[in-house]
Amino acid sequence: MNQLSLLIVDDEALARRLSREYLKKYDDINIVGECDNGLDAVEAINTLNPDLILLDILMPKLTGLEVLALTGRTHGVIFTTAYDQYALKAFDLHAVDYLLKPFSQQRFDESIVRARRLLNKELSIKPHQEIPALLADTQLERIVVRDRGQVHMIPLAEIDYIEAQDDYICIHWQGKSILKTQSLSALEAQLDAQVFIRIHRSYIVRLSAVKSMERISKDAQLAVLFSGAKVPISRAGYERIKMFIL
């Protein structure tokens, strides 16, 4: 039987200990490490590339979903958490599996069986179709970007605007900017439409960052931000933003 490597990620020592206890019966699963926060998990996943990950959702520094977004991990993930509001959505999306704490040995074993099947491509729904869907359906409180080995956590309240640049988005906040590999449409789906407005096919602005609108020709307008930046507004974008500004 092929050996499988497994990483345990949970901020609760008791939860990590319980997972180790449940895994004792599996001679073919090798526990390659433990992490108690999201930042360490990102490093461990990138370094160890384990076959399976037991991943808590709410943790210090980074959430489990942010860990997935930063690592690009799309397979072999078993979510664990005490909060069932995430569980219902995960099951709707046929996620690899979702263990709601406290879980039994029997429930844990069922999850391992399902994970094996997914790794062996025995199920018709593959994980790479599932985890991104869970991420996309989760409304953000901040945007997390990994850049040259450093992790930036940008609160939404500090963002002025977001710009599409080919396969990237460029996030502008507090006089700074950074690139992230993501489409503007995918990010838009995670943002509150009452707070962030798509004013152009290439631009999203935070509504409270907009100072005024400036007409530069008969059919062209700009959003003037408190930061001093000026962002183009399309006709469709004007229809979206005018109810809030005018």
Question: Mind explaining what this structure looks like?
Answer:
The chain has 246 residues and is α/β, with parallel strands linked by helices. It has 2 domains: 4-136, Response regulator (Rossmann fold, 3-Layer(aba) Sandwich), CATH 3.40.50.2300; 142-245, LytTr DNA-binding domain (OB fold (Dihydrolipoamide Acetyltransferase, E2P)). Helices cover 31% and strands 33% of the residues. The strands form 4 sheets. Strands 2-1-3-4-5 form a 5-stranded parallel β-sheet, with helices on both faces. It has a 5-stranded antiparallel β-sheet with strand order 10-9-8-12-11. Strand 3 (52-56), helix 3 and strand 4 form a beta-alpha-beta unit. Helix 2 (38-48) packs parallel to helix 3 (64-71). It is elongated.
Summarize the structure.
By secondary structure, this protein is an alpha/beta fold.
Give the terminus-to-terminus CA distance: 67 Å
* Average pLDDT taken over every residue: 87
Q: CATH architecture of the largest domain, please?
A: 3-Layer(aba) Sandwich
Biggest beta sheet summary = 5 strands, parallel
Q: Using the coordinates above, name the CATH class of the largest domain.
A: Alpha Beta
Number of strands: 15
Radius of gyration computed on alpha carbons: 21 Å
Taking pLDDT < 50 over at least 5 consecutive residues as the criterion, the unreliable ranges are 122-128
CATH topology label of the largest domain: Rossmann fold
Shape: elongated
Q: Work out the helix count.
A: 8
H/E topology pattern: EHEHEHEHEHHEEEEEHEEEEEH
Judged by helices, strands and strand pairing, the structural class is: alpha/beta
Q: What proportion of the residues form beta strands (DSSP E)?
A: 25-35%
Helix content: 25-40%
Number of domains: 2
What is the quaternary state of this protein?
single chain
- Tell me the name of the CATH homologous superfamily of the largest domain: Response regulator
The largest sheet has its strands arranged as 2-1-3-4-5
